[in-house]
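Quick one:
INPUT:
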């Protein structure tokens, strides 16, 4: 039976899902709160879905899940398999936890070359083995040609409290009140130093350049890497109050989330931010902000200021953190990020509506 005209008109005017709603930033947060998490029952766990941290914590079990729609599957410096393992491990680690095990669900398009499957799964397995986190369960589905873009993956991980987290909190507590048991987004306080573990924007620019054929790929490679061992070292140093990997929406989104959840302001020195000349040039050419581009092998860190230099020294002793730098400080005031420019000017660094480079993770 044909639908009545009133129903057809209603369906035609219903809002549709758009790319920005899955790309991090404010558009995604708004979409999630209205159409996804609003339908879920509330929980009383220690760190719940409502907090929108990188992982949930239930009875000291740390749990995260991640969907991956990377395009293309292979790019300069990495591939989807590396991103799946590294990104999921990092989401556990930034909470102050030790990742214990990974899961892997794969959706394959009918007609996909099995050689591509072998290459991606091999990379996923090697990356997981390299960071010491086993793959213990999973699922595989095959759908008709055209239903997906070759291959999608969904990974999950579980972890437990790092043996070094209590020491880290004890060190932080020597300098100020620290009333949380984890390194969550709401722990930043005025005076905390803000640290970037290395060059930002590499992943998004490398993938976009390779995908669109801009030619920047010859000098810019993805930063994709598991960071669990680097994070373990800085927890041993101590004084960390919050950590987050700046994936979708980049550093701009991460810092604005911290400001909002912790109710603090921030002042960031643009010249101190590790940015490659090639990334800045590419972004200028494309009209996008390198601070809003996703990363896959970096972490933003807040720590008590007294320990900032020591944390940076520890980071620089690792391959993944050798370019780490203090880029600014949290402060009293409105929950926003103020960026001090190279010429001494000041501007507000807004949270992006979404990552300007879609499908990079």
């Amino acid at each position: 039976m044909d639908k009545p005209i009133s129903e057809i008109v209603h369906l035609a005017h219903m809002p549709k899902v758009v790319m920005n709603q899955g790309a991090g930033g404010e558009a995604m947060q708004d979409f999630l709160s209205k159409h996804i998490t609003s339908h879920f029952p509330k929980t009383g766990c220690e760190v719940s879905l409502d907090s929108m941290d990188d992982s949930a914590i239930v009875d000291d079990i740390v749990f995260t899940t991640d969907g991956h729609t990377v395009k293309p599957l292979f790019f300069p410096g990495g591939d989807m398999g590396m991103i799946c393992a590294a990104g999921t491990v990092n989401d556990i680690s930034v909470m102050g936890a030790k990742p214990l095990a990974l899961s892997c669900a794969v959706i394959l398009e009918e007609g996909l070359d099995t050689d591509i499957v072998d290459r991606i799964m091999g990379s996923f397995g090697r990356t997981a083995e390299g960071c010491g986190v086993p793959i213990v369960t999973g699922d595989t589905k095959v759908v008709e040609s055209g239903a997906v873009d070759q291959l999608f993956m969904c990974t999950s991980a579980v972890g437990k409290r790092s043996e070094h987290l209590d020491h880290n909190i004890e060190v932080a507590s020597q300098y100020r009140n620290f009333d949380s048991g984890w390194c969550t987004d709401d722990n930043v306080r005025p005076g905390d130093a803000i640290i970037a573990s290395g060059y930002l924007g590499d992943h998004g620019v490398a993938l976009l350049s390779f995908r669109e054929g801009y030619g920047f790929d010859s000098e810019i490679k993805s930063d994709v890497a598991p960071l669990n061992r680097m994070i373990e070292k800085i927890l041993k140093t101590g004084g960390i109050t919050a950590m987050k990997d700046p994936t979708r929406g980049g550093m701009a989104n991460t810092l604005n989330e911290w400001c909002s959840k912790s109710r603090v302001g921030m002042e960031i020195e643009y010249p101190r931010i590790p940015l490659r000349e090639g990334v800045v040039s590419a972004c200028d050419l494309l009209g996008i902000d390198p601070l809003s581009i996703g990363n896959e092998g970096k972490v933003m860190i807040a720590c008590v200021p007294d320990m900032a230099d020591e944390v940076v020294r520890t980071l620089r002793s690792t391959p993944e953190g050798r370019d780490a730098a203090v880029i600014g400080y949290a402060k009293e005031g409105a929950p926003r990020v103020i960026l001090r420019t190279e010429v001494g000017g000041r501007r507000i660094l807004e949270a992006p509506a979404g990552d300007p480079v879609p499908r990079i993770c």
